[in-house]
């Protein structure tokens, strides 16, 4: 299979390219310098030059605060850009995968969200990604939409200064005697390598549609931090932050845990418990660091 990956140098995109290559596919990675997602002619030229069977769209404007400050740019990238990609896929009779987010929900349900639950985003990022979902689904029959949550991977996250949550916690633990982390926001931390594996599994299926794709079970950010430190036996004075202690410029859902109901219904779910995913990440990270010396 010929696979095009948009956002190939990103935290997720880099692992997606590697996983499809491991499975014997021909992979064409596109970065922002290769294709301008907000230009229909640029998308058409780039994809037509390779004529892939599958397009995985991981490219997005996903800095939440910047999306709130400039919703027009966010909508153009996350929704209109997705439409251009889906239009090309429709013309070429190719399959398109659009990566979405848990932020399409408002967090008020307080139990894991199903694909059938009504989306009600509370910030510009979530609104634009939900629009991208609808435009992808309405345009290309052969489509998958995969919602992910609290992702982390070895490739630096450009939208967060190069640091995912795990790396941020490890950095802060080296710089501070005490750390305080919120304990009232719940997620399912998910490693990018498992999302990439899930995308390969979906690509071998014709059960098109909307899917949730996150690690099993959930935790608060405080519990996630605690597991990071405990897993590597790092002694850190970690405390629970008081509600509202860290003010945010953008409203975020307090509870954005997703249930992989559709994946399980089609026997496609590859995700382990979030703790297992974290332990694998930390082991891989330690091996990568050791190999440098």
General description of the model:
This protein is α/β, with parallel strands linked by helices and 293 residues long. The chain has a single domain, classed as 3-Layer(aba) Sandwich (Rossmann fold), CATH 3.40.50. It is built from ten helices and twelve strands. Strands 2-1-3-4-5-10 form a six-stranded parallel beta sheet, with helices on both faces. The chain has a two-stranded parallel sheet with strand order 6-9. It has a two-stranded parallel sheet with strand order 7-12. Strand 4, helix 5 and strand 5 form a beta-alpha-beta unit. Helix 2 packs parallel to helix 4 and helix 4 packs parallel to helix 5. The longest helix has 22 residues. The radius of gyration is 19 Å and the shape is globular.
CATH topology: Rossmann fold
Major beta sheet, specifics? 6 strands, parallel
Radius of gyration: 19 Å
Count of discrete structural domains: 1
Q: Can you write the helix and strand succession as a string?
A: EHEHEHHEHEEHEEEHEEHEHH
CATH class: Alpha Beta
Q: Strand order, biggest sheet?
A: 2-1-3-4-5-10
Distance between the ends: 37 Å
How much beta, percentage-wise?
Answer: 15-25%
Helix content: 40-55%
List segments where confidence is low: pLDDT < 50 over at least 5 consecutive residues.
none
> Which whole number gives the mean pLDDT?
94
The CATH architecture can be named as 3-Layer(aba) Sandwich
Based on DSSP secondary structure assignment, what is the total number of beta strands? 12
Q: Quick one: CATH superfamily?
A: NAD(P)-binding Rossmann-like Domain
Task: Give me the oligomer status.
Answer: single chain
């Amino acid at each position: 299979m010929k696979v095009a990956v948009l956002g190939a140098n990103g935290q997720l995109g880099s692992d997606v390219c590697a996983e499809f290559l491991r499975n014997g596919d021909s992979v064409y990675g596109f970065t922002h310098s290769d294709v301008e997602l907000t230009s229909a002619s640029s998308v058409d030229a780039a994809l037509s030059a390779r004529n892939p069977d599958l397009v995985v769209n991981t490219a997005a404007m996903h800095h939440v605060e910047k999306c709130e400050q400039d919703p027009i740019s966010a909508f153009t990238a996350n929704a209109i850009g997705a439409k251009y990609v889906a239009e090309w896929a429709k013309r070429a009779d190719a399959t398109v995968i659009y990566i979405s987010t848990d932020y399409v929900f408002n967090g008020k349900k307080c139990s894991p969200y199903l694909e059938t639950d009504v989306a009600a985003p509370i910030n510009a990022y979530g609104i634009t990604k939900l629009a991208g979902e609808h435009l992808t689904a309405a345009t290309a029959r052969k489509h998958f939409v995969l919602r992910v949550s609290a992702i982390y991977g070895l490739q630096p996250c450009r939208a967060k200064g190069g640091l995912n949550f795990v790396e941020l916690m490890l950095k802060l633990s080296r710089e501070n005697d005490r750390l305080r982390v919120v304990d009232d926001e719940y997620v399912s931390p998910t490693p990018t390598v498992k999302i990439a594996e899930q995308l390969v599994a979906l690509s071998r299926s014709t059960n098109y549609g909307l899917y949730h794709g996150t690690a099993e079970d959930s935790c608060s950010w405080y519990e996630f931090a605690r597991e990071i430190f405990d897993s590597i036996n790092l002694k850190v004075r970690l405390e629970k932050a008081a509600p509202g202690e860290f003010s945010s410029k953008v409203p975020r859902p307090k509870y954005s845990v997703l249930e992989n109901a559709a994946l399980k219904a089609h026997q496609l779910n590859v995700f382990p418990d979030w703790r297992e995913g974290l332990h694998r990440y930390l082991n891989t990270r330690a091996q990568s660091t050791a190999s440098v010396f």
